[in-house]
């Protein structure tokens, strides 16, 4: 095993960025096909306009878009900027997660978690749904990560685990404590979203929130534990309400019926919490000591 610490950090970030762009390219396929219940593996990518198969050399993330000057090689139809934008954003986030985690056991898990959230964010933005084929495996993945990361790394890792293991769960194996933390986090995340939707429904007699948001927050809550989950909901509700009110004022409608893709704000809030949440939670907790 070569000593990976001898590799200059910049090389690691470049690898993370290139890998992120490739995953971003795959996310474009997921976002395009999953809502239509199509296979994400077959057939190969085709031009949505003329149906011509896209050769591998025309399917290189970001670069092909620039080389082809945003036009299909066959029919010259304009290619949406959305595709390279998703690839660039995913690349940037992979670099950010690599910077946050360093070379650690948690890194591949955090990258998968971030990719799943991005897929949900983009699909919710376009179709206003959060598909079960992503949220259900996401919940299972979060539970697996909760067991495997402490087992492999030998540290509590998740920020809710240290306090749990000092309290009622003292002396219990760390991965069990971690799993208990996941269940608490899932209840806090999914439960509070469900409660918000239920309250709104009772008050206004209309369905405000899809169960997709609840399932997504089961996944986020299980992965984060309760602390970062509360931060995620806080950021999601705050940004969602600000943008919702802005849209209401601009459209001149006094109608809260306008359904916002709330999953977009929760998903972006979760990615923000993953990258920047630990110091914020620590600062907030410090106010009460
Ligand atoms: Zn074409």
Short description:
It is built from ten helices and no strands.
Explain what you see:
With 289 residues, this protein is mainly alpha-helical. The protein has helices at residues 9-33, 63-67, 82-101, 106-127, 132-153, 161-166, 174-204, 211-224, 226-251, 262-286. Zinc ion binds next to loops.
List keywords for this structure.
single chain; 289 residues; mainly alpha; 10 helices; binds zinc ion
Secondary structure topology:
Blueprint: H1 9-33, H2 63-67, H3 82-101, H4 106-127, H5 132-153, H6 161-166, H7 174-204, H8 211-224, H9 226-251, H10 262-286
The chain binds zinc ion.
Residues 47, 49-50, 52, 72, 74-75, 77 line the site of zinc ion (ZN).
Radius of gyration: 21 Å
Class from helix and strand fractions? mainly alpha
Question: Termini, distance in Å?
Answer: 45 Å
Coarse morphology: globular
The run of helices and strands is: HHHHHHHHHH
Main pleated sheet: none
Ligand types: zinc ion
Name the average pLDDT: 90
Number of strands: 0
Percent of residues in β-strands: under 5%
Runs in which pLDDT lies below 50 for 5 or more consecutive residues are none
């Amino acid at each position: 095993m070569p000593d990976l610490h001898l590799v200059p950090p910049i090389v690691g970030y470049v690898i993370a960025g290139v890998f992120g762009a490739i995953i971003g390219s795959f996310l474009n396929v997921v976002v395009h096909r999953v809502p239509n219940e199509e296979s994400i593996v077959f057939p190969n990518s085709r031009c949505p306009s003329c149906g011509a198969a896209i050769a591998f050399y025309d399917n290189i993330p970001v670069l092909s878009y620039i080389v082809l000057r945003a036009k299909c090689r066959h029919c010259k139809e304009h290619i949406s900027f959305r595709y390279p934008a998703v690839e660039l954003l995913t690349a940037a986030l992979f670099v950010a997660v690599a910077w946050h985690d360093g070379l650690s056991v948690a890194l591949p898990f955090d990258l998968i978690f971030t990719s799943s959230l991005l897929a949900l964010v983009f699909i919710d933005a376009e179709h206003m749904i959060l598909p079960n084929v992503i949220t259900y495996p996401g919940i299972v993945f979060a539970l697996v990560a909760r067991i495997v990361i402490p087992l492999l790394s030998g540290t509590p890792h998740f920020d809710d685990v240290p306090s749990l293991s000092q309290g009622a769960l003292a002396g219990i194996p760390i991965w069990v404590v971690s799993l208990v933390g996941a269940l608490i986090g899932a209840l806090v995340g999914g439960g509070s979203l469900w409660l918000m939707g239920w309250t709104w429904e009772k008050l206004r007699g209309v369905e405000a929130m899809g169960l997709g948001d609840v399932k997504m927050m089961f996944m986020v809550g299980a992965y984060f534990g309760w602390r970062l989950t509360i931060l995620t909901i806080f950021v999601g509700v705050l940004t969602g309400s600000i943008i919702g009110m802005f849209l209401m004022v601009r459209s001149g409608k006094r109608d809260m019926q306008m359904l916002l893709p709330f999953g977009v704000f929760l998903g972006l809030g979760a990615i923000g919490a993953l990258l920047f949440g630990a110091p914020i939670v620590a600062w907030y907790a410090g106010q009460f000591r």
